Amino acid sequence: MKNMLKNIYSRLRILSPFVYYLIQYKRAAIKLGRTGGSVQYKRIFEEFIESCESKSCLQIGVKDNVGKKYGPNWVSVDKFDMRDFIDYHYDIHDLPFENESFDAVVCISILEHVPYPLKAISELKRVLKPGGKIWVQLPWLYPYHEAPKDYWRASPDGLRIWMEDFKEISCGIDLWDKTYFSIATYFYGEK
Length: 191
Description:
The protein has helices spanning 2-15, 17-33, 38-50, 117-127, 156-162, and strands at 57-60, 74-77, 102-108, 128-139, 167-175, 182-190. By secondary structure, the chain is an alpha/beta fold. The protein has a six-stranded mixed beta sheet, sandwiched between helices. Strand 3 (102-108), helix 4 (117-127) and strand 4 (128-139) form a beta-alpha-beta unit. The chain is elongated, with a radius of gyration of 19 Å. The N and C termini lie far apart (53 Å).
């Protein structure tokens, strides 16, 4: 029976790559879901944002689906976004803030667009106070999107390498609702 299932699975990979990869995504999501997943991701992120009330916080980029800063205590930076609530149009590689200026930093869906993500992460670390919290997130299963360029994707393991100078609180994936597709990877840490 086991050999018959292996044989069917092997043929399926050849005859229907789409179905084969759906099965692979399901297996990976179930495995990663034990330590991550959409429900855990949302809960952890909401708790992080709530913990930032009345602190000095830096928001690198503002997602369209959020459409605003996380609160009045947040300073927003985006080099290319010209919406009214963006405070500064600085380059993430060279932020003109003093060392240890912020209690928290959020950088969502930005690092895939910067040519030198490790340099950008170094800048985020520099402006973060000791004991400050950081949230970095990148798309995973998302089409190529130039805005102005699209350079990177990083798995949770890759993010851990990029963020190795921070103490990890949580690192994982965000699943697309009611699917097995991991749409983003995130790292939540402390300086």
